[in-house]
Design brief:
This protein is α/β, with parallel strands linked by helices. It has three domains: about 240 residues, no CATH class; about 180 residues, 3-Layer(aba) Sandwich (Rossmann fold), CATH 3.40.50; about 80 residues, no CATH class. The protein is built from 25 helices and twelve strands. The strands form three sheets. Strands 8-9-10-5-11-12 form a six-stranded mixed sheet, sandwiched between helices. Strands 4-3-6-7 form a four-stranded antiparallel sheet, with helices on one face. α2 packs antiparallel against α10, α2 crosses α11 and α3 runs parallel beside α5. The termini are far apart. The relative contact order is 0.11. The structure holds adenosine-5'-diphosphate and magnesium ion (MG). The site of magnesium ion has 3 residues, from α16.
């Protein structure tokens, strides 16, 4: 069973290859073969769209526009300039791909439904250009007389052309599988589930989104070119908004984010209209009703939901016997911190509207220490962590990390310099396995790029194996080996916190920021956490702990900073801080100074001056 599920994709590819070879004979007539060719073209398009929708979590409703760009490029080059099939295919892909970059640009600002609107707008614009630029596109009449496709000078008959499209579809499938099972696939999934966590691991979220858009645009362009040479004629009505919807439906109905889903979806939605012809006028009604029912019964699409059900009956088996617990130094070498001062905040101020969340904060962190950052709720502790880790932009002041001015750097750049962090509300990649959560943390450590991953070059495989081992070792280090193949969301809360620390270690941090790591933990889990933090510190990692659990933070911190109302009110050793009258007033006020702060502190409204 294990073998089957791991090699299902390749098994499927072999079966599909055999089917493709046999199809011209099975189909029998030209009309049927044309239908199957079209189905494969849609499959290619859906596979590309899956990278965007399924892996990266971005919805595009403008895919027909990219399909049209590929198709018109090929039709114009072939009819006007006499270009052959192969040059048309390449140029169609390149041209459509460059529009992918254009489409990716808005993602810097807009997400979700707003992004969907941008892609719809794109589709409308392309359709309109195809209609109005008469001299180039032939308007409603379109472009006909596209020559027969040739390869190496030989004309391709229907059967040969079907094989070529089949080969392209198999290639698109292989690329899809290889991207999914690579650092790019993991980083895309990670980005779609928690953008800030992905960035905190050194993943350049914008670059990754652009890559996803370009990949989906290139495949849509290729599909458009293949369509032109199949149909020999194109006109604007082939690339309307309803086609964009259909392409998106193929991915979602089949199962977004799965490798087989787009294939099943494209097949099903190509077949369905043929099947439904018997319903006459009620065809569209039945079509809609079927879609609604399938999505209700199988909410993650046909393949996605089937995989979930299989997973329930055959839970993830452990593939690794847990080896010896390797010392951290062997798993991720961290190296000397360099310099006396690890992190310095100078006169940092940050406002949210009228609220000064940070007000001229000055703080210094020596290399190698454990630094406690405390203060009542709403004091600005998380804001300070967000400001120094590149998540928030400060209004004024500077941040220096390892002697370099990093004030204007973004989260992923800081991560690559060795700043890692966890979040007050855990930001795990919930739908990914525990192993993949940590594995994704090694993203920026790879040397081989996209083509190495797609072609599964030996150097890439070697790197994959190395980082997979390291990720497993990190899990072993924090005691989560047994859960490596579970989804992160299925872990108990205490383990989720541990997983977040293990993941942060993957970036080989020189500085680790922990935002309330003990919140929600049981006493024995807190004891474990304390040991873990001390172990990490012994390893040479500088650590900042934001914590309400006074016993813990007082016990482990060599230095402390106390914030209140966005201002530093005290600094010093745990003992000094405890004695400070300002701290006692602001924070410890009551005799239960070792207990968490009173609940009324939560109320921000009361804190307004
Ligand atoms: P702490 O972590 O010390 O409990 P925070 O840093 O989360 O406090 O918050 C400091 C203040 O800034 C609070 O009053 C909070 O409501 C406000 N704040 C934090 N983040 C934001 C944000 N993204 N937008 C607006 N206000 C915020
Ligand atoms: Mg906080």
């Amino acid at each position: 069973m294990m073998w089957l599920s791991r090699n299902l994709n390749w098994l499927f590819a072999v079966v599909a290859a055999v089917l493709i070879l046999a199809m011209p004979d099975i189909a029998g007539n030209e009309y049927a073969l044309r239908f199957y060719t079209l189905m494969l073209i849609y499959t290619i398009l859906a596979l590309g769209l899956n990278v965007l929708v399924g892996y990266t979590g971005l919805v595009s409703l403008g895919q027909a526009g990219l399909y049209a760009i590929g198709a018109y490029t090929a039709a114009i080059l072939a009819t006007r300039l006499g270009f052959g099939f192969v040059p048309c295919l390449i140029l169609g892909m390149v041209f459509a791909g460059s529009f992918g970059i254009l489409l990716a640009y808005p993602t810097v600002r807009v997400r979700g439904v707003y992004l969907a609107v941008v892609t719809i707008a794109f589709g409308i614009i392309v359709e309109n250009i195809a209609i109005e630029w008469d001299s180039l596109t032939g308007s409603w009449v379109g472009i006909s007389n596209v020559p027969k496709p040739t390869l190496l000078g030989l004309p391709l008959n229907h059967k040969m052309y079907f094989y070529i499209v089949g080969g392209c579809a198999l290639a698109a499938f292989a690329v899809n599988v290889n991207i999914m099972n690579s650092r790019f696939g993991r980083a895309m999934l990670a980005t779609s589930q928690s953008e800030i966590a992905a960035a905190s691991l050194g993943i350049n979220v914008t670059a990754l989104r652009t890559l996803a858009f370009v990949l989906s645009a290139v495949t849509a362009g290729a599909a458009g070119v293949l369509y032109v040479f199949l149909n020999k004629y194109i006109s604007p009505d082939i690339f309307s908004f309803s086609d964009s919807i259909r392409f998106l439906l193929m991915v979602i109905l089949g199962g977004a984010g799965t490798t087989l889903g787009p294939v099943v979806g494209a097949g099903a939605l190509s077949y369905l209209p043929e099947l439904l012809q018997q319903f006459g006028e009620w065809q569209r009604f039945v079509y809609g009703a079927l879609l609604a029912i399938v999505m209700f019964v199988l909410p993650r699409g046909i393949v996605g939901s089937a995989a979930d059900i299989l997973h329930r009956f055959f839970p993830a088996a452990r593939r690794e016997t847990d080896g010896d617990k390797r010392p951290l130094g062997e798993i991720v070498s961290i190296g000397p911190a360099g310099g006396e001062v690890c992190l310095e905040a100078k006169d940092l101020s940050l406002h949210f509207g009228g609220l000064a969340a940070l007000n001229n904060v000055n703080a210094q962190l020596s290399s190698g220490e454990i630094h406690g950052l405390i203060g009542p709720n709403g004091a600005g502790k998380s804001t300070l962590l967000n400001a120094v880790s590149g998540i928030y932009r400060v209004n004024s002041g500077r941040v220096f990390f390892l002697g370099v001015d990093t004030t204007d750097m973004r989260s992923h750049q800081l991560a690559r310099r060795g700043l890692a962090r966890t979040f007050q509300n855990t930001e795990l990649f919930q739908e990914m396995t525990v192993l993949d959560n940590v594995w994704a943390g090694f993203h920026s450590d790879y040397r081989t790029g996209l083509f190495g991953a797609i072609l599964r070059l030996p150097s890439y495989r070697k790197e994959e194996e190395k980082h997979r081992r390291a990720a497993l070792d990190l899990l072993n280090f924090v005691g989560l080996t047994d859960y490596a193949y579970e989804k992160a969301k299925s872990l108990p809360f205490g383990f989720q916190r541990k997983l977040e620390i293990a993941r942060a270690l993957a970036v080989r941090p020189k500085l680790l920021l922990l935002d309330e790591p003990a919140a929600g933990l049981t006493q024995s889990e807190i004891d474990d956490l304390r040991d873990l933090i001390i172990q990490l510190s012994d390893h040479g990692i500088t650590i900042v702990v934001v914590e309400h659990h006074m016993e813990l933070v007082m016990a482990i911190s060599s230095q402390m900073t106390v914030l209140d109302y966005g201002e530093v009110i005290a600094k010093g050793t745990a003992a000094e801080v405890q004695e400070d009258p300002k701290v006692i007033e602001a924070y410890f006020g009551s005799p239960e100074m070792l207990a968490p702060p009173p609940e009324e502190r939560l109320d921000d409204a009361e804190r307004e001056p």
